Automatic annotation (TrEMBL):
Similarity section: Belongs to the UPF0177 family.
Residue ranges of domain CAAX prenyl protease 2/Lysostaphin resistance protein A-like in the record: 116-212
Gene Ontology terms for molecular function: metallopeptidase activity
Keyword Transmembrane appears in the UniProt entry: yes
PANTHER family associated with the record: CAAX AMINO TERMINAL PROTEASE FAMILY PROTEIN (PTHR36435:SF1), SLR1288 PROTEIN (PTHR36435)
Alphabetical UniProt keywords: Hydrolase, Membrane, Metalloprotease, Protease, Transmembrane, Transmembrane helix
Transmembrane segments: 33-51, 72-93, 105-128, 149-166, 172-191, 203-222
Name listed for the protein in its UniProt record: CPBP family intramembrane metalloprotease
Amino acid sequence: MAIVRKISLFILLVCLAKWVGYTAASADMVPMQLLATAFYCFGIFLSVWLVRKNATDQQRFVKLNGHDCFVIVRNLFLQFVLYRLLRFIGLYLGLNVHSVNQAAILQHLQGLSAAELVLMFSFIMVWGPIFEELVFRGYVMNAFTKKKLTLGMAFVSALIFAYLHLQTLFITWDNLLVFVLYFKSAFLLALTYRQTKKLTASMAQHAISNAIVSIPVIIWLVNG
């Protein structure tokens, strides 16, 4: 019965994360964005409580040290090298490199005020990475193992993360590359957590990664 309870809690967290993410992405006024921020805070509070109950070690939310920063930088470097490599291979094979999720965000950002854009990018660079790391790394990689963070659960967490970011029911030839790119990023986040045993490390890596890929979007919005 314990495994059924854990799976049920995971489904609850995933549904909450998807709903909050949708609410944040579709919010086009400051009051709605502030409400979405409140939803994020509730989800983060609930996730922290569940991770503390299920995590296997005591270094989940400890501040980062030099070794942790090295792991983050190294895995970020690998992430963007692999991105360029996989994108090159995908383009050579004629695969689609654009995700529905990214296209929807870009379309929604157009026409927002400065205050609304600041709140929107806070979802992308702060609240989203924190919440997703708690759910997909913190809970998934701890709740279903007894003693340590395993590569198997890192793989599983990356698969689930990538699939849920597709915004479609089936993996097809048209979205295969997008799935692989999301999986690559998620697996490196899981490795960072496994190598540091600190969720703060994977949160920092996730936030930095989102900030880096947001830079061209910010430049596009400013120039547009």
